From TrEMBL:
Its EC number is 1.3.99.-. It comes from the Bacteria. GO terms for molecular function: acyl-CoA dehydrogenase activity; flavin adenine dinucleotide binding. One of its GO terms (biological process) is fatty acid beta-oxidation. This is Acyl-CoA dehydrogenase. The keyword Hydrolase does not apply. Residues 254-394 form the Acyl-CoA dehydrogenase/oxidase C-terminal domain. Keywords: FAD, Flavoprotein, Oxidoreductase. The keyword Translocase does not apply. Its cofactor is FAD.
Length: 401
């Protein structure tokens, strides 16, 4: 910034919490969030573009994430830290504000994998698996989506489970499974050929014969997350590893209801990160002799971005309150996922637009948010599928094919 263009007052620091929603948390919760922010800004932000460009995961960051003590937030007992759904949402938002891949890695492990065991496991299974997962000594993934079955998972999985005595034989494939190429255990959902119901299984990746994973290459979004194609070729899983409380897809949906709202929070964080980078750029980038942040159309873009973020923040805060009150329904989570990811997609596009040509260069960060948003927009139920869930709830008619 030239001497002639410098303002005679300090510029406001980029802050996407415009309605001060952070203040609804307790002092203890805010202190934890501050530790998460400090870790993400000091340890993740300086290196994440390198790993994104290399399509690689920063394993050296796992001890630091473990030391934050956030794995299993929202779950009581079994070595988990407890806490509210609201706190868990703010953590997701804080992680994604710096990087959506790290937030996704955490969400798959802490939400999908640990949540499946917490909600559907027997007492013995919870005691065995959740403590090492909370300590991040064991990392999990969640195998639901298949090469030929994505949005239609509720209508029938192609992966099958056949019981032979005290053993289950699993056959099929799972695709787009985050953490799968390297993690320790997979929650695999398969259709029982005897009763045609979906059941969940804990599969130990590295010791189960017939289990293999191929890393999915050439992604343009969430490149730091390692996604895999899991192949189950006559995998033999003991009955003790079947999730004892999961007897149908309705039980699977309990997990998805929780994690769908997690993605809504994550998408808000992605929007926040893109907005804050854009605002910082607008305050320092000069054209025609002054910062572009002083131009009306740039300010209009920033105001629209902040409006999207603030509306989405208010929605997910209420969503978490409903969950903590035991009132959360599928349609509540679906509306938030559809709305927040749509607003995110719009927001990150405006952020990239504000950067002009620099917006497509990884060095300026916003390109990473712009690309990663495409994955958040698609997974945990497309906008169309979530809209139909909401539509059925408000009209009383099912429009599913």
């Amino acid at each position: 910034m030239t001497a002639s263009s410098k303002p005679n007052h300090p510029l406001p620091a980029p802050d996407s919490d415009f309605y001060l929603l952070n203040e609804i948390l307790s002092d203890t919760e805010r202190a934890l969030l501050k530790r998460v922010r400090t870790f993400m800004e000091s340890q993740v932000a300086p290196v994440i573009n390198k790993f994104w460009a290399e399509d690689a995961f920063p394993f050296e960051l796992i001890p630091g994430i473990r030391d934050l003590g956030i794995a299993g937030v929202g779950f009581e007992g079994y070595g988990c830290p407890g806490g509210s759904t609201l706190l868990d949402g703010f953590i997701a938002m804080e992680l994604a504000r710096v990087d959506s891949s790290i937030a996704t890695f955490y969400g798959v492990h802490s939400g999908l994998a640990m949540g499946s065991i917490y909600l559907g496991g027997s007492e013995e299974q919870k005691q065995k698996w959740l403590p090492p997962m909370a300590r991040m000594e064991k990392i999990g993934c969640f195998g639901l989506t298949e090469p030929l079955v994505g949005s239609g998972a509720g209508g029938g999985l192609l992966t099958t489970a056949r019981r032979e005595g005290n053993t289950w034989v699993l056959n099929g494939q799972k695709r787009w499974i985050g953490n799968a190429p390297w993690c320790d255990l997979s929650i695999i959902w398969a259709r029982d050929v005897d009763d045609n119901q979906v059941k969940g299984f804990i599969v130990e990746n590295k010791t189960t014969p017939g289990f293999s994973v191929e890393k999915i290459e050439n992604k343009i979004a969430l490149r730091v997350v390692q996604n895999g194609m899991i192949t189950l070729d006559h995998c033999r899983v003991p009955e003790e590893n079947r999730l004892q409380g999961d007897l149908s897809f309705r039980d699977t949906a309990r997990v998805l209801r929780l994690t769908r709202q997690y993605v809504a929070w994550e998408s808000v964080g992605c929007s926040m990160g893109a907005y804050e980078h854009a605002l910082r750029y607008a305050q320092t980038r000069e054209q025609l002799g002054k910062p572009i942040g002083s131009f009306q159309m740039v300010q209009d873009l920033l105001a629209k971005m902040l409006g999207n973020i603030t509306a989405s923040q208010c929605m997910v805060v209420r969503l978490a309150q409903l969950q903590d009150q035991g009132k959360l329904l599928d349609q509540h989570a679906s509306l938030a996922k559809a709305f927040c990811t749509t607003r995110m997609r719009e927001t990150v596009a405006w952020a990239r637009e504000l950067f002009g040509g620099n917006g497509i260069v990884l060095d300026y960060n916003v390109a990473r948010f712009f690309a990663d948003a495409e994955a958040l927009y698609s997974y945990e139920g497309t906008r169309e599928m979530n809209s139909l869930i909401v539509g059925k709830a408000v009209t009383g008619f099912s429009a599913f094919a």
